[in-house]
Amino acid sequence: MKFIDEYRDPELGKRLIERIHRHSNNSARLMEFCGGHTVSIFKHGIRQLLPKNIEMLSGPGCPVCVTANADLDKAIALAHLPNVIITSFGDMIRVPGSYSSLQLAKAEGCDIRVVYSAQDSLSIAQDNPDKSVIFIGIGFETTAPTVAATILQAEQEGINNFYVLSLHKLCPPIMKAILDMGEVRLNGIICPGHVSAVIGSYPYQFIPDKYNIACVVSGFEPLDILLCVDMLVDQIETGHYKVEIAYRRGVKPEGNQQALRLMDTVFEVAEADWRGIGVVPESGLRLKKSYQPFDAEAKFEISMKPSREAKGCLCGSILRGINTPLDCKLFGKKCTPEHPVGPCMVSSEGSCATYYHYGDYYGG
Ligand code: SF4
């Protein structure tokens, strides 16, 4: 299949692996910030193919996982309001909040529907004019433009029963927050492919400039990731840190201007609450004042109990890269994909689910 097979070519993969082994002398800790990369790295056994001096860490790039319990509790509280339909991406439904989950709320009689896009949600609003339809807007810069486009469409078509709970998050600010926390020592970052297709590669320039860390945007196929690692190793071995793109077919340095314009029309940068990290200034998106009629937070009043974390769950520190799922005593015992305790075991891009499905289960 075009654009897949050529990026899975075993011969090219072998040559790249040999090259990495040949020129990687110094120890290097590389973090993939994107959950999609974590899945691909595990699925294709890439960690095991790299030299022992290269250590791979997973970061906070799973939108479901980084949604704080307080925000999830908000979504559950909104679901209990009368005449409300909640629409959400599938993974989010099963994530346990502080006291309940959207799945449990559905079992209690709340109208909660799984959608594949904000657009589906708008159709539900059109079909149910006597109900308020609230879309739980999670995701990074990848999904925010499509949500913005849907809000603009709702405005244009005069649909006044469609709302968004904007929990969108921004990638570069959380990278900066993690680097500033200084809990993990990193030599290189595998930058997210899909996010970068929207924002481009320029917003990562602070990483080599301020932190002397190698930085390469990667695609998701095994050869994309191996090429990315090879480029990171080059930077680390030569000490010339910069932002490079190993995913030219998907990412331009300047990003996707149309998507950025859409995002900028509807949203403004605001603080966001990240699981395990807390509130980070300018790391999220909220609806601009002019789009407040579509803002679920502005429209609905809810009361909530203080949020709390599941006992023993290490999702927060796994998202910061200071623990792996194997450090969690509940992993594979009390916490499995069938009975998840935390979001990292629910989401298809969560580290715990990835370790569970693809990892050398008890060996990492
Ligand atoms: Fe949380 Fe389960 Fe992962 Fe442990 S294994 S960190 S309980 S999601």
Please explain how this structure is put together.
The chain has 18 helices and 11 strands. Strands 2-1-7-8-9 form a 5-stranded parallel beta sheet. Strands 4-3-5-6 form a 4-stranded parallel beta sheet, with helices on both faces. Strands 10-11 form a two-stranded antiparallel ribbon. The two termini are 32 Å apart. Helices cover 41% and strands 16% of the residues. It has a domain at 65-170 and 256-295: Rossmann fold (3-Layer(aba) Sandwich). The chain is an alpha/beta fold. The protein is globular and about 65 Å long. A hairpin with a 3-residue loop joins strand 10 (267-274) and strand 11 (278-287). Bound molecules: iron/sulfur cluster (SF4).
Q: Top keywords for this entry?
A:
364 residues, alpha/beta, Rossmann fold, five-stranded parallel β-sheet, four-stranded parallel β-sheet, 18 helices, 41% helix, globular, binds iron/sulfur cluster
Give the SSE map.
Elements: H1 10-23, E1 28-32, H2 35-43, H3 46-49, E2 54-58, H4 63-66, H5 69-79, E3 84-88, H6 90-94, H7 102-107, E4 111-114, H8 118-127, E5 132-137, H9 144-156, E6 162-166, H10 171-181, E7 188-191, H11 193-199, H12 206-211, E8 214-217, H13 222-238, E9 243-245, H14 257-266, E10 267-274, E11 278-287, H15 296-299, H16 315-319, H17 343-346, H18 351-358
Parallel strand pairs: 1-2, 1-7, 3-4, 3-5, 5-6, 7-8, 8-9
Antiparallel strand pairs: 10-11
Helix pairs in contact: 1-13, 2-18, 9-14
